[in-house]
Model the fold of this input.
Amino acid sequence: MKVYLDCYPCFFHQALNAARMIGADEDTIHKILLEVNKILPEIPREATPPEIGRQVYRIVSRWTGIKDPYQESKKRCTAQALTLYPEMKERVRSADDPLETAIRVAIAGNVIDFGSNTEFDMIDDLQSILRQAFAIDHYDAFRSTLGKAKDILYIADNAGETVFDRVLIEELKKPVTYVVREQPIINDAVREDAVAAGLDKVANIISSGADSPGNILGLCSGEFFKAYESADLIISKGQGNYEGLSEENRPIFFLLKAKCPVISRHIGVQKGSIVLMGSRYF
Amino acid sequence: MKVYLDCYPCFFHQALNAARMIGADEDTIHKILLEVNKILPEIPREATPPEIGRQVYRIVSRWTGIKDPYQESKKRCTAQALTLYPEMKERVRSADDPLETAIRVAIAGNVIDFGSNTEFDMIDDLQSILRQAFAIDHYDAFRSTLGKAKDILYIADNAGETVFDRVLIEELKKPVTYVVREQPIINDAVREDAVAAGLDKVANIISSGADSPGNILGLCSGEFFKAYESADLIISKGQGNYEGLSEENRPIFFLLKAKCPVISRHIGVQKGSIVLMGSRYF
Done:
């Protein structure tokens, strides 16, 4: 998916939010915004939002000297998500269709606000997402692709959400390669976050080789490409990976909640929808 | 109130919304955004948001060739608001405190979405605003200032809202000068909009001399200044006028709904609050 004009204000929002999260002073934030300002006229028509997002966060890191502003927040999210793990496993175990429920659990990980501090609230959120209708539901195609698949690639999104991915991976009952970012970017999962969520027990963890908030193939490593080309089922979590992979002709299923109006329009669903959607390969 | 860093993304949003409203093509919008981008590094520290907003809308006008994109929309809002006029008059007439109710009616004009197309919906909105508690309530000071006032200046905000202003002006029972913008800017009221709402029957309409979306004293005419300096009660409607006048040491009362997070923080209220607030003069 290409950068839309509606993304321009959003790049400023992202820079502001990250800089404020770090506690940067207003002078520093001003300098950061002026530098974001400089990159906008140079955005090529074929750029995807994560490519520009990556540049925006690099500017924030450079001016604040902080490489991983979300480190503590990511640890907290993972710890909170782990408290829900037994509850999620029980939901899947007792479901009429455990695979379908595990997919919903994985999407719930993309939705739940781990900032809400009681386990009770999070269970409540989980429950409502398990009931929400899919706006696009390619479950039958997913199940049939999974049935034939020998080699599954699972491209991760945020830390914390990783625990929910684990529940789905355990239900796939096939060998899975789990892809994390090479370097910290926003609250996206890196290897450390995946291990903290126990993914090393259920999948082979590799890095994409990239540090963009979303999977940009042009930035990925040879190791990633080998796994990407050979996989016969690719699961892509979240909006950022969709932005990078939406035009790909590979057997990808996108699992996400459409939180951004531009992505919602691109997919053709209402903002707030949950989606299990096969790529144009199918 | 000065421009905050949080206003930067908002200037892009405003340009996007105005250009899309006109039906500009994506190439033109792209050019507009790049020109908005150019003015950001030059924003002086002491600038107020309406000063920059004015520049943003000028860019949109220049690229699209359309000077008054909101003309039709303003006419429709005024016509819709006029259908509510008898209902508003009846509410004020039957109220325990007609002046306080008329103030609420005037704020309701700043809140109601005239896009909602049934009279029934608008009456519903009006009713709920008449019940909403003020987050800041300087009604006693307002009433006492009004009691002594000989010369009232009322600075208007949007078209449509003008009809609601008329209800309050009729309740003030004193001579009122009603200030509109000199030139069209967003959906702000110009003389034509005020006359369409019947303000010429209850007030002396003058123009501020300016075309900024909010009253910027530096841009105002001599006629405005004379009225501004001699008034012993000034009523300032809406956020844009607050942005321009918040630091002024004149007998101003701000009537507004805090819709923007930056203005809400500046005033010290929750977003969504309604406010009747005296200036630092009091």
Summary: The interface with chain B takes residues 5-6, 8-10, 12-13, 16, 26, 29-30, 33-34, 37, 40-41 of chain A (CB under 8 Å). The radius of gyration of chain A is 18 Å.
